[in-house]
Amino acid sequence: MTPDNIQSLQHEQRLFTPPAAKRAHIPDMATYEEHYRRADQDPEGYWADRAKELLSWSKPWDKVMDCDFNIPKINWFVNGKLNVSYNCLDRHVENGLGDKTAIIWQGEPEEDVRHISYRELLADVVRFANILKKLGVGRGDRVALYMPMVPELAVAMLACTRIGATHSIVFAGFSAASLMNRIQDCEAKVLVTADAVLRAGKKIPLKGNVDDALTDCPTVTSCVVLKRAGIDINMVEGRDLWWHDVVADPNIAPTCPCEPMDSEDLLFILYTSGSTGKPKGVMHTTGGYLTYAAHSTQLVFNLHDDDIHFCTADIGWITGHTYIVYGPLALGVTSVMFEGVPSYPDPSRFWQLVEKFKITSFYTAPTAIRALMRDGSEWTKKNDLSSLRVLGSVGEPINPEAWMWYHENIGKSNLPVVDTWWQTETGGILISALPFATPLKPGSATRPLPGVHARIVDAEGNPTTANEGGHLIIERPWPGMLRGVFGDPERFKQQYFDRFPGKYEAGDGARQDEDGYFWIMGRLDDVINVSGHRLGTAEIESALVSHPAVAEAAVVGMPHEIKGQAIYAYVTLRADADESDELIKALRNHVRKEIGPLASPEVIQFTVGLPKTRSGKIMRRVLRKITSGSTALEDFGDTSTLADPSVIQDLIAGRHN
Ligand code: PRX
């Protein structure tokens, strides 16, 4: 092992056989292996079949792929033509599915529910596409969307795709400055927004941020504003238009042809903030992205025509793009879109929705699972969850205990929990169990999907042996991968392809066990070096979370005279546990017993909250600063993606020196 590698200390051994399913796309491991082999030996044939089975193309491609990671150059379905709006709407209506529900929308207030059929959604999209055209938006132009989780957001996205415009969605929790930077970077022509966001019983103004952002966005000529909350806002004459006014215009044509797009035309830009530097505008294109979205949605959630799929993410993140809108709608299934939060008015909100809409697949994030776990399992027992077939997790490593809690309380010890590893850049899920085929190990994303060549390599790029931690890389192109960083080809190359020439570098640490299962160990930027042993954050945090008093934990390195670095742990307790010195001792012993003395935290600080990004990921970068003694907010770098900046002061106040 080279010293640069990450050492694994985890001993998770539990194994769960997947339940049998009457209709599984991939019913067993032999079928999975067969698909994997086919995609390995004949990638062009495999992906051509998938692209033809899943999508309608107005012109076939000349060549399935033309890619070279050394340049990098990535092209899929070369010269093929298709339209995303046609694939997600028109063709389903043409196939007799017009009355089928495309989107079940649950607003934040319980009584706000809409069942929108494919025909209705198509009509709304056609209308809004014509409005965008009237506002001067054409093929290749960018449209920024800064909206709550309302059906109009999906309408605006699909309207862009219909006319060949590129959307750039900015999560509605971001500040005016973040919105401004993103609009300036992509030079959007139109912005679509709302007066306010409804969240946990409150109205959070949005339009004020827009007004601030647009003070310095000269490319934006119009701003369409949806009235969601009915608060007073400022409308700028000549720039701002109410959504309800523009859609009521009697002169809008009832039809709008679908622009035939090249497979490699830009479909959307989505900004992702790395730990340093300005956010990267990740570019996804038309044919490859949609193929991969439909393919991965179908296989990972085992979706069939009558399924009701609920992904709890916000559409402002890639998870919402792929698994609320594009994947489910391309497949013609029913997708649930939820405006609220898991804990309001009480922690049974998700489960009420499962019962109410007879949801069959449910996809959420470890941060939500841990929060619900902290509130206690009694909240999971009030509703009928018997419609559920598949449970999924995404966004961070899922601690084995959180996986078990999800499996036992929501899955009633019977449903498969698929832990799905992927990134904004990958467009869709790359590593995940297939729910009715893969034997499950809590905390492992298991095996790559067919067509995905994931490997773990050491610092020199050589393959690691079983259980040896290293860098997660993807060796070959897949259709859903990013095509670039908007306006910055050098950054694209340097960020993903320079370190391991000819390979895609994910930036995550991981290991593969003796069965070939992948275990993600955390971001490589977060690795802690204790006495020369490089430890990933995920295993230590999972060991803490496996103690019955702990709901959530985050670990970072702190300077230590002898060890170089020691482990500083921030711990949130479950609702029924109390802080005490005995508990600190017990937690240290617990970690020692679970994974070894090396990982035993030097310091444990109890906290009511952890600094998280607005998508729910723990920001260890901020914790490192707090641990090292910083008190000034300026020291914390870019905190604009922090969900609740007030936790910083609490953490500083509770710091152990
Ligand atoms: O570190 C990995 C973590 O989230 C990163 C990607 O974040 P983002 O681009 O925001 O996309 C999130 C939704 C796909 C990865 O580099 N991550 C995501 N899923 C998992 C995960 N870490 C461990 N296990 C996962 N299932």
UniProtKB/TrEMBL annotation:
| Cofactor(s) required for function per UniProt | Mg(2+)
Q: Which reaction does it catalyse?
A: acetate + ATP + CoA = acetyl-CoA + AMP + diphosphate
- Enzyme class, top EC level, equals ligase
Give residue ranges for domain Acetyl-coenzyme A synthetase N-terminal: 32-88
Look up the EC number in the record and give it.
Answer: 6.2.1.1
Gene3D superfamilies membership: 3.30.300.30, N-terminal domain of ligase-like (3.40.50.12780)
GO terms assigned for molecular function: acetate-CoA ligase activity
Q: Which domain of life is it from?
A: Bacteria
**Residues engaged in binding CoA:** 199-202, 319, 531, 592
Question: Which residues of the sequence carry a binding annotation for ATP?
Answer: 395-397, 419-424, 508, 523, 534
Q: Which residues bind Mg(2+)?
A: 545, 547, 550
**Stored InterPro entries:** Ac_CoA_lig, ACAS_N, AMP-bd_C, AMP-bd_C_sf, AMP-binding, AMP-binding_CS, AMP-dep_synth/lig_dom, ANL_N_sf
The record places domain AMP-binding enzyme C-terminal at 539-617
Q: How is it modified after translation?
A: Acetylated. Deacetylation by the SIR2-homolog deacetylase activates the enzyme.
Assigned keywords, A-Z: Acetylation, ATP-binding, Ligase, Magnesium, Metal-binding, Nucleotide-binding
Known role: Catalyzes the conversion of acetate into acetyl-CoA (AcCoA), an essential intermediate at the junction of anabolic and catabolic pathways. AcsA undergoes a two-step reaction. In the first half reaction, AcsA combines acetate with ATP to form acetyl-adenylate (AcAMP) intermediate. In the second half reaction, it can then transfer the acetyl group from AcAMP to the sulfhydryl group of CoA, forming the product AcCoA.
Q: Which family does it belong to?
A: Belongs to the ATP-dependent AMP-binding enzyme family.
HAMAP family from the UniProt entry? Ac_CoA_synth
Q: What is this protein called?
A: Acetyl-coenzyme A synthetase
Q: Which organism is it from?
A: Desulfomicrobium macestii
